[in-house]
Amino acid sequence: MVDVPRYWYNIVADLPVPLPPLVDPLDDEAAGDGLGSRIGLLVRILPSRLIDEEYTLSRLLPIPEPVREAYRRAGRPTPLLRAEGFERALGVSGRVRIYYKYEGALPTGSHKLNTAIPQVYYAKLDGAVEVATETGAGQWGLAVSIAAAMLGLKAVVFMTRSSYRSKKARRIAMETLGATVYPSPSEVTEAGRRALRENPGHPGSLGLAITEAIEYVLSGERRRYVAGSVLESVLTHQTVIGLEALEQLPEEPDYMVACVGGGSNMGGFTYPAIGMKLRGEGFERTRFVAAESAAAPRLSRGEYRYDGLDTGLVLPLARMYSLGKDYVPPAIHAAGLRYHGAAPSLSLLRRLGLVEARAYSQEEVAEAARLFARSEGLIPAPESAHAVRAVVDIARRAPEGTVIAFNLSGHGLMDTDAYEKLGVAGGGS
Amino acid sequence: MELSRPGFSVYLTLGYPGPAEALEVLRSLEACVDFYELGLPTRRPKYDGPTVRATHRRAVEAGVEGLEALRLLERGGLGKPFTLMAYLEDYLERPGLRGLLEEAAAAGALCVLLPDLPFDYPEMLEWYVDESLRAGLRPCFFASSRFPHGWLLRYAALRPLYIYLGLQPATGVELPIAVERNVRLARRLVGGSYLLTGFAVRRPETAAALIRAGADAVVVGSAVIRALEEGGVGEARRLACSIYEAVHGAAAGV
């Protein structure tokens, strides 16, 4: 019986080359707002222990017992399932074996709770009474709302305006849990008001919502910002997924696949295996595939350079694949993938050729989601359906005996609006 | 030449606070340092924090930039050994890595620390080592607090003058990081290599704790610069001397 891991895995300790540091902007781009060093500012923004986990030489980070206990209460370990129905539907049965780790089994419906719990717990250790964050489709905001409710803190969520309108079910769920949800751009912060002045019809972006959440934290007392992705410590928390999967997988896969927004689900699922590959302990032949949205193809078409983690440059700069901090992706249904950059470690692994990237349009993804839903009885989240789409492509071309494992990072039971608009609902098989 | 164990060093950008006073300030600290770390002024101190960045800006604005700063040392030199810090990015095209190292050696430096080398030019590590030895210098290496273990092992195998562990994300910026844990881990990986620690060390007790955790030496930059700005040379010397005593006291088990 697989148990909740005792440690998270920090891939930075095993990278083939050093990870470029976060830096303050060199030019005057961020000067003049009185905030000073962006790195120095982190101490007022992030929970202290999260900062420590961001800057550690340790390969393994002990999971605090209250966090492990909360993981258990939330339903970890999550199952790893064989997708036999999907194999049959793809016509690869007996030739290709497909497994998926099902993070949708968590009460949030996605993997996001894996880092929401420790971050809210760390905020509480700092004496915070409120946690603020951004959200796209609402999965991260919902996870923070649940973690805050579990640990007795108040959650404030800046939800991209396009999702605020379309993802009503998640918004109401967050509010039911006691969270306050603002559409971003909002009238609550200066950054939001400025964006609305420039474009009253602004659909919002994750980069802007981050800036708003941080401005909210800095403008009050006993508040902490909790980060949904991109930071190394967040990816480290998500490695519970991959560490469990290593115990559960009956065979070493030829492919490990996950979708990428900021990179926490991809990193969480694949890093323990990539680490073993880097240390020469296994997974030598495994290929690691990141599936992203063609609307925000930062790993496929972005530039590897220093760029802002958020639109307003309140956070430090990170070297990553980026489409530009001001890029506002089209209002696609997979709102969780509408981020301009990718986590620095994932970007570095992509640059080194250890991770491959594939970008898909939402129409291609919808087709795969329908096939998966009707063969496995699980509706994937529109974000996770990008991974499903990549699996379809790989499986159909794969030679006999190929093994594919992917992370089904969330279910789509609250994304029926997306599937209705994309024509996934109805219409036969 | 090996550096003394324990060691205490002060970092200053060469040319700060001004071309006329730079040497005098360094000499005023001489009794309380085992060696100096001197920065070659640059327009792009990309991996430094705000205090050190300001010293680069001031030196450059006063007309001292890059290798020209070494001329300041021709006016009588220093009574303690010194190493240099430079960003490789500034020298790749002109005069090239070889030119940089040769000039550093001619000025009497023990090594040239290139903090951007592991992050921006990792493929040049061996070349840097070869060129350092060729110029009569020892290599010295920079590592951050999120650094691959394989690279720390590799550093140690290349017999450096020191391995500099940056304890914080940037110079002079203190975040809640368990720096002693990172020093202990680094020590386990680098074995007997000389481990120099720095970034945002500002108190004698912090420096002593670092030595007790396994560091061979501590370097202080931003705190000395702030003391110099706020209280003049006397204040900078008082701070340096108090940390020097803490470092040596900790090593002696005081």
Structure summarized in a few sentences:
The complex is a heterodimer of chains A (429) and B (254). Chain A is of the alpha/beta class.
What does the model show?
The complex is a heterodimer of chains A (429) and B (254). Chain A starts with 6 loop residues before the first strand and ends in an 8-residue tail after the last helix. Chain A has 429 residues and is an alpha/beta fold. In chain A, α12 (264-278) links the parallel β9 (255-259) and β10. Chain A has helices at residues 38-45, 48-54, 65-74, 84-90, 113-125, 139-151, 161-166, 168-176, 190-198, 206-218, 232-248, 264-278, 298-301, 344-351, 362-376, 384-397, 416-421; strands spanning 7-9, 60-62, 80-82, 96-102, 130-135, 154-160, 180-184, 223-225, 255-259, 287-293, 303-308, 317-322, 356-360, 402-408. Chain A has 2 domains: 7-61 and 112-225, Rossmann fold (3-Layer(aba) Sandwich); 77-109 and 232-421, Rossmann fold. In chain A, the strands form 4 sheets. A 6-stranded mixed beta sheet of chain A has the order 3-4-14-9-10-13, with helices on both faces. A 4-stranded parallel beta sheet of chain A has the order 7-6-5-8, with helices on both faces. In chain A, strands 1-2 form a two-stranded antiparallel ribbon. By secondary structure, chain B is of the alpha/beta class. Chain B has one domain (7-251): Aldolase class I (TIM Barrel, Alpha-Beta Barrel). The longest helix of chain B has 30 residues, at 222-251. The interface between A and B is medium-sized, with 33 and 34 residues.
